[in-house]
């Protein structure tokens, strides 16, 4: 499909620079079949049914944004996928000044050697020393805010260390937050449980590839970056049992959805899964493992807007986004939510 089919006019002032406070005070646009309703995130328990199951991504964002020097050249690196105990694949700013074997000094006693330049301009970075890389990143790294936010705010600050982690964040390894889950608070979770709605978690370490624009003219020519995920056997069994009993599996975030769909077989059974997924969902895709999605509002011509168009229909989503823009909903990672029930 032509990428321009997923374009729309998004005023830049609709991109939220800070989250709602408290988190569950955000607005929520509900698309339930043919109905469209303006609600709030706190209305979620009444928008679902007893017996439904929400599925959250429990990945934890690491401080994966690094600024360093190779000689007198400034080098920026955004880690996006772990390739070994001390090796990360990274997108590099000013990469033309970098060659295989060069050492980058990120300060605070943190250095890494660059190698294996990829066709996308990324490099493998091997971190020196014996300390766990996680500790090195805590010293030298910053929270990797999406560029659409960071460029307007001058980068991340201390607030983002809390704002950009979800209530469920446990498994360190993501370089972007599963942002739909940023709306959840203990109070909202208590209301969800009281309404008879269950929840489970899985792990997908979100990569910086989620921020990359689609540069191809046709979706067939776009290459998704792989991300590592895991669904254990008890979680797979629980998701299957919910649907067998007549409940719905509602993915919280496109990351949860993509992993569930990667793990679901042709008969609609979720299987245990551990490994990489590069699934790219566009209109025409037949969903097998989920019955709905809670997600934030996405950018024009993004892979995530293509995904929600596959779930609800392109014309339906374009009309919904026109409604959201006119209604001053807040977009992107720190923005408002939508609940999509086809």
Automatic annotation (TrEMBL):
<dbReference type="InterPro" id="IPR003699">
    <property type="entry name" value="QueA"/>
</dbReference>
<dbReference type="InterPro" id="IPR036100">
    <property type="entry name" value="QueA_sf"/>
</dbReference>
<protein>
    <recommendedName>
        <fullName>S-adenosylmethionine:tRNA ribosyltransferase-isomerase</fullName>
        <ecNumber>2.4.99.17</ecNumber>
    </recommendedName>
</protein>
<comment type="pathway">
    <text>tRNA modification; tRNA-queuosine biosynthesis.</text>
</comment>
<comment type="subunit">
    <text>Monomer.</text>
</comment>
<keyword id="KW-0808">Transferase</keyword>
<keyword id="KW-0671">Queuosine biosynthesis</keyword>
<comment type="similarity">
    <text>Belongs to the QueA family.</text>
</comment>
<comment type="function">
    <text>Transfers and isomerizes the ribose moiety from AdoMet to the 7-aminomethyl group of 7-deazaguanine (preQ1-tRNA) to give epoxyqueuosine (oQ-tRNA).</text>
</comment>
<dbReference type="InterPro" id="IPR042118">
    <property type="entry name" value="QueA_dom1"/>
</dbReference>
<keyword id="KW-0949">S-adenosyl-L-methionine</keyword>
<dbReference type="InterPro" id="IPR042119">
    <property type="entry name" value="QueA_dom2"/>
</dbReference>
<dbReference type="Pfam" id="PF02547">
    <property type="entry name" value="Queuosine_synth"/>
</dbReference>
<keyword id="KW-0963">Cytoplasm</keyword>
């Amino acid at each position: 499909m032509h990428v321009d089919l997923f374009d729309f006019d998004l005023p830049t002032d609709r991109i939220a620079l800070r989250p709602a406070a408290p988190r569950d005070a955000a607005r929520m646009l509900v698309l339930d079949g043919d109905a469209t309703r303006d609600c709030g995130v706190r209305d979620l328990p009444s928008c679902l049914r007893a017996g439904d199951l929400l599925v959250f991504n429990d990945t934890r964002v690491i401080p994966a944004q690094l600024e360093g020097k190779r000689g007198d050249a400034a080098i920026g690196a955004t880690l996006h996928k772990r390739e070994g105990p001390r090796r990360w694949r990274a997108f590099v700013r000013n990469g033309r000044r970098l060659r295989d074997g060069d050492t980058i000094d990120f300060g605070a006693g943190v250095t890494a050697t660059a190698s294996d330049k990829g066709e996308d301009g990324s490099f493998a970075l091997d971190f020196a020393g014996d300390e766990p890389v996680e500790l090195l990143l805590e010293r030298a790294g910053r929270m990797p805010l999406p560029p659409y936010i960071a460029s307007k705010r001058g980068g991340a600050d201390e607030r983002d260390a809390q704002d950009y982690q979800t209530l469920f964040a446990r498994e360190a390894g993501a370089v972007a937050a599963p942002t739909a889950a940023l709306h959840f608070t203990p109070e909202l979770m208590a209301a969800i449980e009281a309404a008879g709605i269950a929840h489970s978690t899985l792990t997908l370490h979100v990569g910086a590839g989620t921020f990359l624009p689609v540069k191809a003219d046709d979706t067939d020519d776009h290459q998704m970056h792989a991300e590592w995920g895991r669904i254990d056997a008890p979680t797979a069994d629980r998701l299957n049992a919910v649907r067998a009993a007549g409940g719905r599996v509602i993915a919280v975030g496109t990351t949860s959805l993509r992993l569930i769909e990667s793990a679901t077989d042709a008969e609609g059974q979720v299987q245990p899964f551990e490994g990489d997924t590069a699934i790219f969902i566009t209109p025409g895709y037949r969903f097998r493992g989920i019955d709905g999605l809670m997600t934030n509002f996405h950018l024009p011509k993004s892979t995530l807007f293509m995904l929600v168009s596959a779930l609800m229909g392109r014309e339906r989503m374009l009309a919904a986004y026109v409604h959201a823009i006119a209604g001053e909903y807040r977009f992107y990672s720190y923005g408002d939510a939508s609940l999509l029930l086809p």
